[in-house]
């Protein structure tokens, strides 16, 4: 019996809480995982999992063995990382990455060839979307997330800040006037962008110098309008049609502003930026493939003035 493979299979079953999902993430037949676990339990002389029709649960022996497996597999990953760091071309295996749709399409995917060139033997699976995913259950190695993060068992590495502007088309501003103060925003139509995960609208909070409040003062803006969307690209498309003011990421609008299709309003009052973080399960923190991708992705964000962690 391949003990390391058996440990990896056991950990994947526990993380996914399902033989079927674990088999899908490992691209193996479900029967293969069942046989591996049965052989492992027979070898150890202990039952590791309680199986019911609805769920799996660890036995006391299974909890102890699961902790040992995580420590052993992490040590193996550490050893590989030390070696493969000097032999990047030899790094092999699979990496499953979950990216927000708009940010992934605009920033990450256009440059993914660079990462692929550096690590040609890695197989990448890139998932684009904004749905709530369970990394461990779905076998995803890491996920890029924008905004404040809820408490969880996942490790979060902050790699950037998403900066925003308030913008509209010149045609809309010609019809309705250009707001000169924060209070004037209430007189305008606003495109409401709400979270597809929570259903809550993203707030407009502006910081800057107005009415003598001084730099760093924050003003919360009440927004309303005749249209609401749960997608960043749809938010931009609505703004480009002259439907109202929109709070948009600077990376989204810079080309449109340069071409005159959009104009920034209240440029001295900057919307509060949102953190961008890479999330991954704690047990994979030493995975050399994940470390390589995280380092590369941090470099992509650092090279972009609208997304880097610190202002130049």
What does the model show?
The protein has helices spanning 3-16, 19-26, 30-44, 60-84, 101-108, 112-118, 135-138, 170-176, 232-240, 250-258, 288-302, and strands at residues 49-51, 56-58, 93-99, 122-128, 142-146, 154-162, 164-168, 191-193, 204-208, 217-221, 227-229, 246-249, 263-265, 269-271, 274-281. The protein is α+β, with helices and mostly antiparallel strands. The radius of gyration is 24 Å and the shape is elongated. The strands form five sheets. It has a five-stranded mixed beta sheet with strand order 4-3-5-15-6.
Helix and strand topology:
Elements (H helix, E strand, L loop, with lengths): L2 H14 L2 H8 L3 H15 L4 E3 L4 E3 L1 H25 L8 E7 L1 H8 L3 H7 L3 E7 L6 H4 L3 E5 L7 E9 L1 E5 L1 H7 L14 E3 L10 E5 L8 E5 L5 E3 L2 H9 L5 E4 H9 L4 E3 L3 E3 L2 E8 L6 H15 L10
Parallel strand pairs: 3-4, 3-5, 8-11
Antiparallel strand pairs: 1-2, 5-15, 6-15, 7-12, 7-13, 9-10, 9-14
Helix pairs in contact: 1-2, 1-3, 1-4, 2-3
User: Ends: how far apart?
Assistant: 55 Å
| Proportion of residues in extended strands | 15-25%
- The pLDDT mean sits at 87
Q: Helicity range of the residues? A: 25-40%
**Count of individual beta strands:** 15
Structural class: alpha+beta
Could you provide a short overview of the structure?
The protein has 312 residues and is of the alpha+beta class. The protein contains eleven helices and 15 strands.
Primary descriptors:
alpha+beta, 312 residues, 5-stranded mixed sheet, 39% helix, 3-stranded antiparallel sheet
């Amino acid at each position: 019996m391949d003990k390391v493979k058996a440990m990896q299979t056991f950990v994947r079953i526990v993380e996914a809480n399902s033989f079927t999902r674990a088999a899908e993430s490992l691209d193996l037949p479900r029967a293969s995982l069942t046989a591996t676990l049965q052989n492992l339990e027979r070898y150890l002389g202990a039952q590791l999992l309680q199986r019911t029709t609805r769920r799996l649960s660890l036995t006391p022996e299974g909890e102890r063995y699961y902790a040992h497996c995580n420590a052993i597999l992490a040590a193996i990953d550490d050893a590989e990382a030390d070696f493969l760091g000097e032999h990047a071309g030899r790094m092999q295996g699979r990496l499953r990455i979950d990216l927000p749709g708009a940010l992934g399409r605009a920033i990450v995917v256009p440059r993914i060839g660079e990462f692929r060139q550096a690590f040609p033997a890695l197989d990448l699976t890139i998932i684009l979307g904004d749905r709530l995913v369970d990394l461990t259950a779905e076998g995803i190695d890491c996920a890029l997330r924008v905004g404040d993060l809820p408490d969880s068992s996942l490790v979060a590495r902050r790699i950037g800040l998403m900066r925003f502007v308030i913008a509209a088309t010149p045609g809309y501003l010609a019809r309705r006037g250009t707001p000169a103060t924060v209070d004037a925003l209430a007189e305008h139509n606003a495109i409401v962008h709400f979270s597809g995960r929570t259903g809550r609208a993203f707030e407009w909070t502006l910081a800057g110098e107005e009415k003598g409040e001084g730099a760093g003062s924050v003003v919360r803006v009440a927004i309303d309008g005749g249209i609401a969307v749960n997608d960043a690209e749809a938010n931009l498309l609505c703004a480009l049609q002259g439907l109202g003011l929109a709070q948009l990421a600077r990376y989204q609008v810079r080309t449109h502003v340069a071409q005159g299709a959009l104009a920034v309003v209240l440029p001295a009052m900057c919307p509060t930026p949102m953190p961008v973080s890479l999330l991954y399960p704690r047990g994979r923190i030493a995975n050399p493939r994940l470390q390589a991708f995280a380092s590369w992705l941090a470099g992509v964000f650092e090279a972009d003035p609208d997304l880097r962690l610190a202002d130049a």
